[in-house]
Amino acid sequence: MHCLRQRYGGNLIHTYAGPNMVVINPLSTPSMYSEKVMHMFKGCRREDSAPHIYSVAQSAYRNLLTTRQDQSIVLLGKSGSGKTTNCQHLVQYLVSIAGSTGKIFSAEKWQAVYTILEAFGNSSTSMNTNASRFSHVVSLDFDQAGQVASASIQTMLLEKMRVSRRPESESTFSVFYYMMAGADSNLRTELHFNHLAENSAFGILPLSKPEDKQRASQQFTKLQAAMKVLGISGEEQKALWLILGAIYHLGAAGATKAGRRQFARHEWAQKAAYLLGCTLEELSSSIFKHQAKGLQHSTSFRGGSDEASQGDNSGSKVTALECLEAMASGLYSELFTLVISLINRALKSSQHSLCSLLIVDTPGFQNPRLAQQQRGATFEELCHNYAQERLQTLFHERTFVQELERYKEENIELVLDDIESSTSLSVAAIDQASTQALVRTLARTDEARGLLWLMEEEAVQPGGSEETMLDRLFSYYGSAQGENKGANLLLRGEEPHLFLLGHSHGTDWVEYNAQGWLSHAKHNPAAQNAATLLQDSQKKNISGLFMGRASGATVLSGSIAGLEGSSQLALRRATSMRKTFTTGVAAVKKKSLCIQVKLQVDALIDMVRRSRVHFIHCLLPKAEAVGGGGEPRVTHGESPDSGLMTLNVGLLRAQLRGSKLLDALRIYRQGYPDHMVFSEFRRRFDVLTPHLTKKHGRHYIVTDEKRAVEELLESLELEKSSYHMGLSRVFFRAGTLSRLEEQRDVQTRRNITLFQAACRGYLARHAFKKRKIQDLAIRCIQKNIKKNRGVKDWPWWKLLTTVRPLIEVQLTEEQIRGKDEEIQQLKQKLDKVERERNELRLNSDRLESRITELSSELADERNTGESASQLLETETSERLRLEKDMKDLQTKFDSMKKQMESMEMEVMEARLIRASELNGEMDDDDTGGEWRLKYERAIREIEFTKKRLQQEFDDKLEVEQQNKRQLERRISDLQADNEESQRNIQQLKKKTQRLTAELQDTKLHLEGQQSRNHDLEKKQRKFDSELSAAQEEVQRERSLREKLAREKDMLSGDAFSLRQQLEDKDLEVCAVNLKLDQLEAELQDLNSQESKDEASLAKVRKQLRDMEAKMKDQEEELDEQAGTIQMLEQAKLRLEMEMERLRQTHSKDIESKDDEVEEIRQSCSKKLKQMEVQLEEEYDEKQKVLKEKRELESKLLTAQDKVRCDDIETEKRLRKDLKRTKALLADAQIMLDHIKNNAPSKREIAQLKNQLEESGFTCSAAVKARKSMEVEIEDLHVQMEDISKTKQALEEQLSRLQREKNDLQSRMEEDQEDLNELMKKHKAAVAQLAQNLAQISDLQAQLEEALKEKQEVQEKMQALQSQLEFQEQSMVEKSLVSRQEAKIRELETKLEFEKTQVKRLESLVARLKENLEKLTEERDQRSSSENREKEQNKRLQRQIRDIKEEMGELAKKEAEASRKKHELEMDIESLEAANQSLQADLKLAFKRIGDLQAAIEDEMESDDNEDLINSLQDMVTKYQKRQNRTQGDSDTDSELEDRVDGVKSWLSKSKGSAKNLSDDGSLKSSSPPGRRRYCFDRSDEEEEEEEKEEGGATQGSYCSRYKYDSHTKDSDDEDRPYLTTS
Prior knowledge:
mainly alpha, 7-stranded mixed sheet
């Protein structure tokens, strides 16, 4: 959002979102789409160009040229987001950049095309003042050279009903307003527009505002000019205006609302009939009579013409106005199809085309609520929204589904976030077909189907309506059916005919008004009669156009227009669309008006799916930009105000979420979007590794493509994370393949440059060879001319030159005649071949067209057969299913019949048995009155028991109701807790998703860092190579230095020898001086002697002059040498000073770098220590938490086991006690009856005493168990609180670790910046070192020059020595010798100075080498520290991941503990209920014991039994002792004490009057007293029988139901009865 807002604020409306383009409609773009900008993008790759609509077109065009595969560009977005404008820019760019043969497709022609399309297909809506009301596909066919060979336009989903019916505040198609405002007087007269109607049934009224009229008039002029550009003649234009005028007059004529169906105003209908070229009767019958001329109804496979019957049934219900509207819409549909045909006629070409590029433009998402309109969306808007949803589904399929399937096929594991489902749920609610779609039936089935299919079914149903259609739709896809049937995507509206549908993944909810939608599904013959009416018109221009068009298949089932075209690609597109309309269900349903919508979109999607798709998402900046229809949009060239560049953030965010751009961008960044097959990749990028080609050879055959590609990738030195090897292709991260392409382009340019150089060299050599031949020819010509000049005056030559041409004339004429004949023969052959070729071309074209027709017919027949076979298969499967169901029902019926018979037999047997029993009882009653008295007493007891049971039942019911209310309250609390936990879980899920997204971003950042490190390693390797070269250079310099030292030693030796020679020369000079003196003396002698010869004197003088001249020359040469030596000394001094200055600056830089490196090292060491300390602390805390977690887990497990064991034991014991108590109570009742009949015995009273004690023990044990359970529950609560605290502590620790991780990342970034600075300084040092090396090389060159000068000086010295020898031989002066000696000394000093200079250079080189070694050591240390930091960061990330896993485990454990807590609470509640039931049973037992006491009192009044009283007193005392030991706290204990007190009081009263009971009625026992007890065994079935038969049972029956069993028990020396259930 921030990126889009910043770019939009800077007037940058285009943005890349991975492979897709995002365009925000700017409302004003004056200079963004000029021709200059077009040429800026020409030939550029996508990676090298800025985001622009032209870059998408260039990318598609480049892919088309390189892959020779069809391309398509799909524009998505809301209405008013600029899709049509961008489509125009795409077409203009492709036409202007690609060009065409002969420039037949110019920008002017395409501008004319869009002018006509906007006039006939656009209108003003609430969303957009110039909205497209149809979908169209622009097809550009390209030839082998990449130029546009032909073009065509296909249109579909035209809103033809907009001519007659449209929403309020919206207009009809713009061409009507243009024609009414801009027609000239002649055209007005011809169209009868001089007097316009005041009202119209279609709402077509002229514009009222003058500025609107002026604008419409200008547009009409522009429309006429555009038609002229496209070659539409005047007669054809006139035919179009006549049809439009007829539609207007039909609206003015109107129709009657009631009674007979006819025109309301016949004069306007007469005008319409005149314009259409027919009579009023023909027009009226075509509209109202429903007799379609030539109308072919589609028949089903069962042989019935259901369409015709449907038309007849609906004809009586259709009103006159609906018929008139159908005729108007049919006329406009035919007119629009004609306009598209004329446009395609101007665009088609007969040139051969190779591949095509499709541009898809559909009306955007329509939502009236967005334009603040309080109305529901119409059926046409639903169709446009459905088309956009299907295109969004295609985007989801291409972006997510195909990518993930490709990864799965290639075994590439890629961890991605959960990708949300596509928009298929909302699409299914519109177009889902049933499995029985081929079977035509009027019965409604329960199988789910979409809205379009429901509309078709309800239209043919006798009682079908919109309400029943919506009810069925909600039963299939409503929220009540569960999420698997489209929950939350289809909602009911406030009114019955309104419903809400969630588009764009539920981000754009549109409210639709379904009122009157079934009329769109019904066939109206008036609409189908429109074509027949136009073909039979009396006006030739109209009938000629429509009769010619009727012969060719330009319209597919009345749906898709613009299928003309003779090129192979156009025929292939038409065949593809026809196949969509003739396959499967489409073959049966293609005549259905609703299903045609689905079939049109299917054809569009199928055509786009065959190509490589490029998506452009057009976004709407704000809702105000598309405001009401009253405000016109800002056109191009107008200056927008300051508020236009602001964005509606909520609207923009909703569009981004609905288009799933962020998910697409995430899978683009995290996945491998670029991929190539192994062979193609190796063939394309083999040029980057020439060494592999040299290694394997040029004609090497690859056997294992995968191994070859791996070797190629290894040689390219790509990162391992930037690519992935699949099974058949190699995958690349985003941007990797573009870098390889750039490297390939660079290498290709280099190779082409070398190839051009070789070609130019060859051409130059060829030209040079030609020049040599020309030079030889010129020389030959010159030679011949010279010879000709020599023989031209020769008479014989003249004769030859005059006679020879006359001889050759005859020969040349014969040759010319032969050549002419050959030319004529060749021309005839050429004409013949040309004729044959034209005939063959015509035959091939005719055969191709015939083949295409036959293939289309064959495909139609095959599809018809397939549909018939599918129909047959469905019918057979239905028949088999029904037969199977029938067999199942028959078997069920037979089984039920048998069961009924057996039940009847059982009932009859039961009745017979009952009757026999009743007869037996009557016989028993007749025996005596004793049994009658017992029977009556039993009846009274039963009634008393019933009352008591009713009271108990009421008490239990009240208790249960209280428990129920408590449980409901608890359930509500638990539900609230569950909702809270769900919210917490959702928050945690969001947090985890955010953390995973941050982790993915961190991974991407880490990969970027790794790639940067990889580049640094590359640079490091390059630097190492340069360093090794520098070291080799230093070694070479060192060898040169050693060589110079050796030469210096040799020179010093030579200087020493020269010194010795100079000393010798000094001696010789002395000798020469002596000789000179002698000579002077001799000269004086000679002067004195005049008699000497003058000739000898002249010779000596001459010799002296020669010697003086030579001496002067030598002096001049020595002066020149001294000047050069001084210049060299000055240069050396300057170099010394410069070297000293450089050394000082370099030493300062090295010191500062050492300080910086030391500081960085110290900071890094401190950070590392801190991180180690933190990691140790975290590790300790982690161990503590783990230890606590293990202890808690062990405690929890032990508590659970203990609670479970205790619960099971307690439950078993309580159930056992309950059964025992029930049995004892029943036995007590039986014993009471027995005592009444017989005298009571001691055993029975002992048994009652034992039962009482045992019930008390059971009650106390249940109380104890309850208390222990409460204590354990409190412990579990405490443990849960501890676990929650530890969880919070772990979350805090995780947040702290996250902060530390962020700090570490920031520190790493700072270290990375420090490292970059160090690398910069290192580079500067390396550059300085290179400069120093260059200076050293300069000094070496100077040293070599000095050595050369030294050699020259030595040579001069040798020459001087030779001259000196010569002078020694001759008579020279001593001054010359001294001057030469001085020069020799100067040369020696220069030599010493050069030696010192060489030593300085050696020391400088040594210092530079040491500095270089230091820098390399520092670099190694920095790299090692960086590696350590990386490892530490990885270790920290692993620890964070471990902590997160532990957090997840703790959360799972906490959930398990909460679940177990819930289970324990439920167990406790069940135990409490059991306890309460036991207490109630115990109360009942005590009541029965009271009854027993009363009965015993009655018996004891008559009979004395002191032993019984004593035994009861013993029982009471024992119970009191036990009660004192246990000290119970419950209410039950107090009740027991009350009961015991009652027993004691009763004993005290009856002790005095007790008598010994007689033993006559007592039970006999063979065991000793006190050691034997009776155990009564009775089954639950017998108890139930007793309760049922209690009224009529006798004492004998009681005795027959029980048996006595004796057992012994030695614990506590007491007899206790045990009940065993048989």
